Every structure is written in C-alpha cells, then in structure tokens.
Amino acid sequence: MDDERSWRVGELAAATGLTVRALHHFDEIGLVRPAARTAAGHRLYTPPDVRRLYRVLALRQLGVPLAEIGAALDGGVDDVEQAVRAQLGQVDEHLVRLRDLRRRLDALLRARAEAGQPTIDQLLSTMEAMMAASYFTPDQLARLRQRHREAGDDGFARWQARWAELAAQVRSHVEAGRDPADPAVQETAGQWAALMDRMTGGDRGILSAMYASLDGKGAEAATRGVVSGEVWEYMKRAFAVGYRV
User: Fold this and answer.
1) 224: burial class by Cβ within 10 Å (0-12, 13-18, 19+)?
2) Do residues 187 and 133 touch, judged by C-beta distance below 8 A?
C-alpha cells in the first residue's frame, strides 16, 4: 500500500516539518524532484521521492555539504538503510561515551557516601569520561586546540565576535519572519558556513561534532551564550534548504 501513496508539496511539507519553499528549492536544484504531477500540473511526490528526501536530510545532518549530497546519491549511494546505519553509528558512539560517564558518576556518588570524598584517581577518571562524552574525540579536541593556537587569542576573539554578528543577523531574519530559503537568509547561512570552515580548519568531522554539541547540550550552553536555541533551530532549517558552498 505504501507504494501507491502520493503527497502534494504542502502535504509533504506538513508531514516532514520542512517548508514548501525548501521542497521547491530541492526540486529546482535537482536534489529531490517529484516523480509525478497532478492533472493541473502540481508537484506530486511518490514513495521513492520520500525515501530520497530522507537520505538527503540524513546526509545533511551528518555534515555532508549539500553540493556533495546530489553527487553521492546519483553516484549510487541510494539506500535508506545506509543512511540510517550511519546515523545510528553516530548516535551509538555518543551513547557509549555517555554510559561510561554515567558509570563513573555513580562511582563518585558511592565514594562520597562511603568515604566522604572521592579519590583523585576517581576524579581524574571521571573528567576523562566527561571529555569523551563531550561530542569530540580526543584527536578532534587536539586538532581544534591546535587550530586555536594557530589563530592566537586575537584570532579566536575575532571568530567569536563574527559568530555573534552572524547570530544577530539570524535573529533579525527570525524577527522579520523570513523563510529560511529566502536569499538573504541563505547569504547569512553561507557566511556562517565560511566562518565555521575557518574555525575548524575545514575539518568536517570537527564541524559535525560541534553541531552535535549544539543539539545535545543546547545552543546557549554549547556556545556560551553566543547562539540562542531559537537562532540555532532556524539555522538548521536554513541548512536543510541548502546553501551552496
């Protein structure tokens, strides 16, 4: 029965949480083109179109640039299972780190109850687990620290100031009620992406971990107040539409 279903663009937008404009944009750039049309010429999405849309959004969440997603799917990476497994792998890795941290925190509480004070080794062990659960691998943290050392305190301060400026721009788009696919919003998204590229040295793994921390910790906590939760949720919608970088 699934193969017989179809969705008009408004119905698919409502079902997925995307905007109609985003779906139109995906159609215009050839990323997700509806396979059918109504008698009146309106877009009509079929189950294969929905499966492709899922793969597009899954790859986007994993940090793949929009410009590379189309080539990946058209080149044969055309399997929902593969996209889901990639997402599950990322989630499972994070869950392993969180479970280890939980185990160590339980040990600290037991030590506090039994001896009144956890040992230094227990504290060190827990801090190590906290770092491991902070979305970045030790290697990523080392590369990120090296990137910041190369930029220096002044360079890092400039990055932070620029990020605050872009967050303010995004807030103005939100307040103006602009659709995330609006060219002005997409221009801001492109500038945001360029800044993130400079901050991470172009390392997509670090960028993916950074964005995961915004989702997991909350944007305000992860960015120390630079980016609000509302701004980050809006930017994710802008990224889903797909700036071209």
Assistant:
1) exposed
2) no
